[in-house]
Each structure stands twice: as structure tokens, then as C-alpha cells.
Design a protein that fits this description.
Blueprint lengths: L7 H21 L5 H11 L8 H6 L10 H19 L9 E4 L2 E9 L2 E9 L17 E4 L2 E19 L8 E8 L4 E5 L3 E17 L6 E5 L5 E5 L3 H15 L6 H8 L5 H14 L1 H12 L7 H14 L3 H5 L4
Antiparallel strand pairs: 1-2, 2-3, 3-8, 4-9, 5-6, 5-7, 5-8, 9-10
Helix pairs in contact: 1-4, 5-7, 6-7, 7-8, 8-9
Length: about 325
């Protein structure tokens, strides 16, 4: 039995988890925190930020960087968590967190379509900064179907507001330089704007997902060309990954489920992925499904389905006999 098996190791882990859970529970009930979390629930349901007093106060610009009671409460939480982990190093903070390159985030709370996070950047912009520091020329920017508010708590940094131009306006990405200092608030719509930070900064980040059937798009800063697209939500990503695995495993018994997804009312990208998976698994079933989508007058996939149907028949005319589809 190892030191971290049943016994002393488990006792220490359980003790640490209980301490962290109690700490978070007390923090959420604090006078400076509880009203804001109630507002976050309403914000996640679609209420305007201006109609929510506690939440809007936390994202009100304060010249000179004077902090609010909620700012102080966030600082107290971080200090308490760090102190707790020093005593119980095996404990795990039950808050979503992520770290990439020189940027990290800790989700303090979430509700519905909204989330409130502590965001940190630590980008070395000195002359000796290497690629691993996160500094250097920005080559691509991410645009997601979310609306965001960023309020600087500590530090200062140079930044760029990157604005995606409409295709009719020539495409490409415009760049606006910013200098971020404590107390500043930077709102932006992720569909067409992104903020790239260069420096050391701590900020509160409020986000709300938009009701838009659009993927996250990573575009080249130079010409605005698409680098890659990903699903905007985790559930869609899991389904797309599952469909890729099913196709690789040649699971033809999954055709009914794929047909339901492709013919359903989900995101267009997910439905299209299901259609391609069905074509890869069973040519006849896939062509029948493709024909049904192409023959529809009001389906969002009807135009690309007709285009794909025509391309397939143009290259393999014998496929017409497979499904007996009539346009």
C-alpha cells in the first residue's frame, strides 16, 4: 500500500478537500460576494448588465484603480486558497481553471450562459524574452461567439484590440493599440473583436455566450484568413470527437443516431459533421440522407447539401443508382 493509498494519505486529502469546500462556501456567502453571484445568475439568463447593480458595480471603470469590496473579497479568496494548499498540498480547488502560454484563468462562478473568472497574464516583453514567454509577433487571433468585459485589477500592460472586418469591407483584421491600467474596463464582442495582452496583468473577466450558431474561429492577423474552426461549446466538441471515433471504428450501427443528428435542429457544423460521418460509414445511407437535406426548401444545410450532391455525382455518376434520389 502506498503512502497515498487508504489511510493517512486519504485522511489528509479528505481534510484538505473539506477545508477548501468550507472556505469557498463561506466566501460565496460573504456580503461582498453573495449579491454579485445572484446577479450573475440573472445575467446568465439574459438580463442586461446595467440592470444588475452588484455585477455592474464590479465592472464599472474606476480611474486611479480604486478597488471595490468585491475586488478585496477576490484577493482574500486567493490568499486563503494559497495558504490552505500550503498546509494540504494534496487538496484540489473545485474551480475550473486553465493555463496556456503566459495566460491563465480561474473561474470563480458560472451560471447559465455566463461566467466570472480571474484572468492573469504574465508576458515577458523585455529584450531577452523568448517564444516561451508569450511575447513576440501575434500571428493569429481567436474570435468566439461570446460577449466579454475585462476589468483590470492589478498591473499594467500594452495590448491590442483586434477587430475582424466584414468580408464585404475587404476582410482582414484591424489593430488598435491599448494601454491597460488598473481600474480600466474593456468590453468587446468576441464575434468580431479580440484583446491581445502583452505584459503582466490581473483582471476580472465576465463572459456570456451568445445565442449564435457559429464556431470559434482562429484567423490570421495578416490577411484575416481562417486558420482553424472549433466548436463553441464543450458538448458539441465531445459529439464531434465521438463521431470521428465511430467513423474510424467503422460502426455502421451508429447510422440511425447520425441520421437523427444530421436531420435535427442542432448547430449546422455538428449536423454537417454527422452527415459526413454517415457518408463515410455507409454510402447508401449517407446518400439517402444527403438527398433528403438537398431536396429541402427551408433547411439551413440545403444549399451546401445540393452542392456536395452535385460534386459527388459529377465524380461518381454511379452513386445516383445507390440512393435513387430525385431533385
Amino acid at each position: 500500500m502506498t503512502a497515498f493509498g487508504a489511510g493517512a494519505g486519504d485522511d489528509l486529502w479528505n481534510e484538505g478537500q473539506q477545508h477548501v469546500s468550507v472556505l469557498l462556501s463561506h466566501w460565496r456567502g460573504a456580503p461582498a460576494v453573495a449579491p454579485l453571484l445572484e446577479d450573475l445568475c440573472r445575467f446568465g439568463d439574459g438580463h442586461a448588465l446595467e440592470a444588475l447593480p452588484a455585477l455592474s458595480l464590479a465592472f464599472r471603470e474606476t480611474p486611479g484603480g480604486k478597488g471595490s469590496d468585491f475586488d478585496a473579497a477576490v484577493g482574500d479568496l486567493v490568499q486563503a486558497l494559497v495558504a490552505g494548499l500550503a498546509v494540504w498540498p494534496l487538496a484540489q480547488v473545485p474551480l475550473r481553471h486553465s493555463h496556456a502560454a503566459a495566460a491563465g484563468s480561474l473561474v470563480l462562478a458560472s451560471s447559465g450562459r455566463a461566467s466570472l473568472a480571474l484572468a492573469v497574464w504574465d508576458v515577458d516583453t523585455g529584450p531577452d524574452a523568448g517564444p516561451e514567454s508569450g511575447a513576440g509577433m501575434l500571428r493569429a487571433a481567436e474570435f468566439a461567439p461570446v460577449e466579454s468585459w475585462l476589468r483590470v485589477l492589478r498591473g499594467s500592460a500594452r495590448a491590442e484590440r483586434l477587430v475582424r472586418r466584414a468580408q464585404g469591407a475587404g476582410g482582414g483584421i484591424l489593430s488598435e493599440p491599448l494601454v491597460l491600467t488598473a481600474g480600466m474596463v474593456v468590453p468587446h464582442c468576441g464575434l468580431r473583436e479580440a484583446v491581445h495582452v502583452q505584459g503582466s496583468l490581473v483582471a476580472l473577466r465576465l463572459q456570456r455566450a451568445l445565442f449564435r450558431d457559429e464556431p470559434v474561429q482562429v484567423r490570421a492577423v495578416g490577411d484575416g484568413g481562417t486558420v482553424r474552426r472549433t466548436a463553441a461549446c464543450a458538448e458539441q466538441s465531445r459529439l464531434e470527437l465521438a463521431m470521428a471515433a465511430i467513423t474510424a471504428m467503422e460502426r455502421r450501427d451508429a447510422i440511425p443516431a447520425l441520421s437523427r443528428i444530421a436531420g435535427g435542429n442542432g448547430p449546422k457544423a455538428l449536423r454537417w459533421a454527422a452527415l459526413k460521418a454517415a457518408l463515410g460509414l455507409d454510402t447508401r445511407a449517407g446518400m439517402v440522407l444527403l438527398g433528403a437535406l438537398a431536396s429541402s426548401d427551408d433547411d439551413a444545410l440545403s444549399v451546401p447539401a445540393r452542392r456536395l450532391h452535385g460534386q459527388l455525382l459529377g465524380e461518381w455518376p454511379e452513386l445516383e443508382r445507390v440512393a435513387q434520389w430525385r431533385g
